[in-house]
Design goal:
The complex is a heterodimer. Chain A is 45% helix and 16% strand. Chain A has helices at 42-46, 53-58, 66-80, 87-118, 131-152, 172-197, 267-274, 280-289, 300-325, 373-394, 399-412, 417-420; strands at 3-8, 18-25, 28-35, 161-162, 165-166, 212-214, 225-228, 231-233, 242-245, 254-257, 340-348, 351-359, 365-371. The chains are: A alpha+beta, B alpha/beta.
């Protein structure tokens, strides 16, 4: 057992509770990123429950990304029971997922990351100094949440997505209002994103393996194949490509690629793997600021989140226009109970998310497996933290500087520990 | 000007959705900050010292560390509010048999410390949060909700789901949500805990009469009936 150099306890400005130990052992640096969330073994609580209860319960895994958990669970249950939801329901779900993603990215970039760039502890502590920015963030975030609220019934743990489609027909007026407001919101959001793109982002660390959904024509959120380790695999085969690494010190599962290497999921992986489909204003901003994909620094994940905000707003506008033109009014199909197994892989704000369920012929859950983006990123966080600490020690940095540097690095991945910590006893 | 109240936002084992709901108030949050000062909130990067006027706590207790943490919070807080189903009941009303099925600890915070007020729901409703905060600041006795979800649902003139043979927990669940799930054509899932006068035996009888399958958790819920009585 080596000497603990730094103990980071409950790192602030991330979702959930994460401790990180930096240990010196025979001159070598070792890192342990330990989720300290009490175990929330939701999968076990699902066994024997009705198929329709699954999305209700698993949505509670995370308050920041509840929308994507709910929709992914609905999709996996539909796959298991061979249900084909109507196109209108699929588009509305994508819209509310986009609303959730914009909200999550804004929260992360402006409440969690921006203080690091400004050299302050909290945006609230310095709220008067940044009041205009914060007011604008709030306006855009409110609009994003209003998409989920108007179409999903509630901004956190939305109500309307159900196996078969939606519980309620989305009102045309709601769609028209969201679209009307989007013009002004987009301009405000572009202003915010420019602020971030003008910032000085650290650039010394390098990521290697980027895993995300891949589909031609768009940056996919809910459909497509998975690009992993130089291969393109179907959702059903993805779990063969990664290996579960149990770590006694953490309540979250950790994962590596089959090759033994760590990998990154998230906005940077999405854009590196699908950069050619970045369009509209987001593409123009790339040109203007000299941003070229692929990028390799973990901090480029934050730049990618910023660009995605604009991409998502324009995507939302596109979907709403399609919905307003749509002739069909069907928003839900009848569910016939049948047994089966279904896996759905989507892009959560923080990256690739896997939900898989086995259901019996009475429509009750036999087994459940959920793999979150943060769980997949943890090994990568440890590896890059190790490189950063080594470098800073070589440069003779003070302990306090190292502490701040590592915390900022951890935040760049936008970890969500509530999601990740569910498997083992603390 | 009156001294701003010092508040803390804390989270134990939870999804942090209740704190996110508070942050989602956006411009109203800016108004609130004129009257209160957030002096402790890990999510926002504020880690203050000293006593606080009101502690808002989300999440349940799943470890000795968290038990220690809630005791510390109680010591320094003048008023302590349990936020959301996890803190109020250990997540029992939302998850139904959470804890028993997985064999892990999921204690409501009032098992360890005294709770002054409860904000129910999953997540909490920011309007209710605002009203409670205002009442505490103005030293008023906070209002209590004793009605059921059913008593709010009828105002929307929705056809009763039980009559259609669909399981709905509205008759035994504490209201205050304005029947949000029913308004969205969903059955009540019971996230706000049992109402003051919940009659689970009677409810089971009605389900049987209507030919609705009685879920196992209903019998277990009757054992935590006490929780529903604490808030009034």
């Amino acid at each position: 057992m080596g000497k603990k150099l730094i103990e980071l306890r409950e790192i602030t400005r991330i979702e959930g509770h994460l401790n990180l130990d930096i240990i010196l052992m025979d001159g070598e640096v070792a890192i342990r990123a330990a989720a300290r969330e009490g175990t929330r073994i939701l999968e076990k609580a699902l066994i024997g429950r009705e198929y329709w209860e699954v999305p209700e319960i698993v949505s509670r895994m995370c308050g920041v990304c509840s929308v994507i958990h709910k929709v992914t669970a609905v999709m996996a249950v539909e796959k298991a029971m061979n249900i084909e939801p109507p196109i209108k329901a699929r588009l509305i779900r994508e819209l509310i997922v986009i609303g959730g993603h914009i909200q999550s990215h804004l929260l992360h970039l402006f409440y969690f990351v921006l203080p690091d760039l400004l050299g302050v502890n909290s945006i609230i502590d310095n709220i008067m100094r940044n009041i205009d920015t914060i007011k604008t963030v709030m306006r855009v975030k409110k609009w994003a949440n209003s998409i989920v609220e108007r179409l999903g019934g509630r901004a956190i743990h939305p109500i309307t997505p159900i196996p078969g489609g939606l519980s309620k027909d989305p009102m045309r007026e709601s769609l028209v209002r969201i679209l009307d407001e989007s013009r002004e919101i987009k301009e405000l959001a572009i202003g915010l994103v420019r602020k971030l793109l003008e910032m000085e982002w650290p650039n010394e660390l390098k990521e290697k393996n980027f895993v995300s959904l891949k589909e031609s024509g768009e940056i996919p959120l809910l459909t497509g194949y998975i690009k992993v380790g130089g291969k393109i695999v179907s959702p059903e085969n993805y779990l063969e490509e990664i290996v579960y690494i149990p770590e006694k010190y953490s309540t979250a599962p950790h994962f590596l690629l089959r090759s033994g290497e760590s990998f990154m999921v998230g906005a940077l992986a999405r854009l590196n793997n699908n950069a050619q489909y970045l369009n509209g204003v987001a593409k123009e901003l790339c040109k203007e600021y000299g941003i070229k994909y692929p990028m390799y620094s973990p901090f480029a994940n934050n730049v990618s989140q910023a660009l995605e905000i604009i991409y998502f707003i324009e995507k939302a506008e596109e979907i709403i226009k399609e919905l307003i033109e749509m002739k069909t009014s069907e928003y839900c199909v009848e569910v016939v109970k049948r047994k089966g197994e279904g896996v759905a892989i989507t892009e959560a704000p923080r990256g690739l998310l896997v939900h898989s369920y086995k259901i019996n012929d009475e429509g009750k859950v036999l087994s459940a497996n959920i793999i979150t983006p943060t769980a997949q990123n943890l090994k990568n966080i440890e590896e890059n933290a190790k490189k950063l600490v080594k470098k800073m020690l070589d440069e003779g940095s003070e302990i306090n500087e190292i502490r701040k540097g590592v915390e900022a690095l951890v935040r760049s991945y936008d970890p969500c520990i509530s999601c990740a910590a569910r498997f083992q006893k603390a | 000007m009156k001294r701003r109240m010092r508040i803390g936002l804390y989270s134990l084992s939870s999804c942090e959705g209740c704190i996110v709901e508070i942050l989602n108030m956006e411009d109203k949050l800016l108004e609130i900050l004129k009257h209160v000062e957030i002096v402790d909130c890990r999510l926002l990067g504020i880690t203050g010292e000293g006593n606080i006027d009101i502690a808002f706590v989300e999440g349940f207790i799943s470890s000795n560390d968290e038990e220690e943490k809630i005791r510390e919070i109680r010591k320094k807080a003048r008023v302590l509010v349990a936020m959301g189903d996890c803190a109020c009941s250990g997540g029992r009303f939302l998850i139904k048999d959470f804890g028993e099925a997985s064999g892990i600890r999921a204690d409501p915070i009032d098992k360890i410390i005294k709770v002054d007020y409860y904000l129910w729901g999953c997540p909490v409703n920011s309007e209710e949060f605002l009203i409670l905060l205002r009442d505490i600041i103005q030293d008023k006795k906070p209002r209590e909700i004793s009605k059921t979800v059913c008593s709010e649902c009828i105002f929307f003139e929705k056809e009763c789901l039980l009559d259609k043979g669909i399981l709905c927990l509205g008759p035994i669940t504490r209201g205050g949500c304005n029947a949000l799930c029913l308004v969205n054509n969903r059955a009540c899932f019971g996230c706000r805990g049992l109402s003051e006068d919940a009659n689970i035996g009677g409810f089971i009888k009605i389900l049987k009469e209507k030919g609705i399958e009685v879920p196992d958790y209903l019998k277990k819920l009757s054992k935590v009936m006490k929780l529903g009585e604490k808030t009034h």
